[in-house]
Amino acid sequence: MPRCRHAARGQQGIQRDPELTPRPFDQRRDGLVVGEGAGTLVLEDYERARRLGKRIYAEILGFGTNCDGTHVTNPSSDGMRGAMELALRSARCGPETIDYVNAHATGTTIGDIAESRATHTLFGDRVPVSSLKGNIGHTLGACGAIELAFSIAMLREGWIAATRNLDVIDEQCAPLDYVMGEARSAKLERLICNKFAFGGINTSLVISAI
Question: Given this model, what pLDDT does residue 1 score?
């Protein structure tokens, strides 16, 4: 299970309430928190897996990846949207077929705002959105596999994790259907999982239940 190490500090540099950070999408966010952990998913041809009687947890319908390269650390909403559009095109489905967006949302001001706006331009406020960074921190290169595994669990079990520590939505973030407070029961058939890294390296996966 991933762990996160962090220390939230007040104006006098005194540690206080470290469990309240990171805070994705929250107006009181104070930056990302590095977590640690590992995750592995085994990919196999769907027909071969069925023929061999393998247990199939989910199906990757499509993917999209790009590198907008506009800045090393400042993300581009256009680049993020572009990756999601590529994934939807690859999956041969439209935004209206997506039941949940697993956001990258690290708890940084620029990143959260850009991602929320990119997501809103495609999905409006119809689709539930949440980030797992408040629970496990940012596991950097491992976050793709770890958070996809969590997303598949939600897909199979019919629920959506709330964004931990999201109490007051930043008014600069787009008006999405943020899942807050408690987990939400939901019938999920198809979701999109986003990971947006430094240097404008953006990746989106469209996942379907089996």
Answer: 46
182-210 burial by CB neighbour count: b if 16+ within 10 A, else e?
A: eebebebebbbbbbbeeebbbbbbbbbbe
DSSP-assigned beta bridge partners for residue 39: none
What is d(CA 1, CA 21) in angstroms, rounded to the nearest whole number? 18
Q: What is the pTM of this model?
A: 0.90
35 within 8 A of 136, measured Cβ to Cβ = yes
Q: Using CB atoms within 10 A of its CB, is residue 33 exposed (0-12), middle (13-18) or buried (19+)?
A: buried
Q: Pairing state of beta strands 59-67 and 201-208?
A: antiparallel
State how far the Cα of 182 lies from the Cα of 162, in Å rounded to an integer.
6
The encoded tokens of residue 199 equal: 């240097």
